[in-house]
Design brief:
Oligomer: single chain
Distance between the termini: 54 Å
Number of domains: 2
Shape: globular
CATH architecture of the largest domain: 3-Layer(aba) Sandwich
Organism: Dokdonella fugitiva
Strand order of the largest sheet: 1-2-4-3-5-6-7-8
Strand content: 5-15%
Keywords: Hydrolase, Membrane, Transmembrane, Transmembrane helix
Helix content: 40-55%
Structural class: alpha/beta
InterPro entries: AB_hydrolase_3 (IPR013094), AB_hydrolase_fold (IPR029058), GDXG_lipolytic_enzyme (IPR050300)
GO molecular function: hydrolase activity
CATH topology of the largest domain: Rossmann fold
Largest sheet: 8 strands, mixed
Number of strands: 8
Protein name: Acetyl esterase/lipase
Order of helices and strands: HHHHEEEHEHEHHEHHEHEH
Length: 408
Amino acid sequence: MGVVRVSILFVHAWTAGVRGFMPMRARLQVRRAGVHRGPAPVQPGRVPVDADARCLYSGPMLAVGRGLSGDRRIDPACEARMRKLLLGVAVVVAVVAILAVYVTPWPSVWVIRSIFDRGAARAAAALASKVPADVRIVADVAYSPDDGHARFDVYRGATTSPDAPVVIWFHGGGFVSGRRGDVANYLKVLAGRGFTVVNVDYTIAPEATYPTPIRQANALLGYLDTNSERLGFRRDRWVLAGDSAGAQIAAQTAALIANPDYAKVLAIHPGVRSAQIAGALLYCGVYDVTHMGEGGGVLGWFVHSTGWAYSGDRAWRGTGALSSMALAPFITPTFPPTFISAGNADPLGPQSVALAGALAAQRVAVTSLFFPADYSPPLAHEYQFDLDTDAGATALERSVQWLSGLAD
């Protein structure tokens, strides 16, 4: 099924390319030659335009029995060229599919990034008009000099007090996509409500593997601890926050700071004290990949591909390469107070419900925002970014209320 799925996705991508670039090239050649779309006799021994260009422009229609003029005759030379082209495409598809299933996660990652990047761009554009004009920005600060991905921005509302909670947000993207710019508009809206917000970049997979983002998050906290006065905020009342994969990074970092035994498991020495972390703000996260996607389908392909990319191990389920990502066994009463939410139609929603239960079982203060199964319209993954919906607006207000309570 993996080969078939990747093949279909690649064919869609190739088809879009042929419909876009190649016909444009062919049309240009046809027009330069003065050839029109209507039927025109071709003089023997003379080809007025590049034959491959003509086939790419008209060949697919000829092959199904319709020429540019509606003529149902098939040009034998064009048909032969199209057969060669399709054979070449089939070979490329087969190679890509084999690579995606057996050799490297990169082909699947490219597909996932393409899909996620488009969605993130749409969400950011929809929020642009809601960004307060008076948000103050400190841009592109490096928190690890030797790491080109280790950078952050700081947003502060015009009325934000130096004593306000500091929200440290890690963007989502399935561990294989995303950048801090994707969530910048949303976080500026949040900053405008009276908070300091740190918008963090980290290295995505497969460029780096687990637990690199956790090490980067820990290094960031050490940097903020050293430079908080220069940046204009306190060394405490920090809230580790994020969406989707970023929520996992935030929660895992909070757990390693709160639980010395977990820090030993990860071989990461906490960069700050537990008392400096005032809370965790988590949206639509994944908190245990152990059994995710085992039923196959699109979710199974996605989980396998991202797990492979993030762990660097194609057999990551069997080797337990990501087993330490499971948070529930490492939750202790010292985990910080938590706000957690997910949509009722989010395939990751049960993960948030389960983590909320694990936190409550350890007597951690939990504020949750979940929705009935029949809530309409259904709330998909990352529902909170759509502030034009009642649920998205409610999530923002509830987050602001919860954060404000941390400052009391």
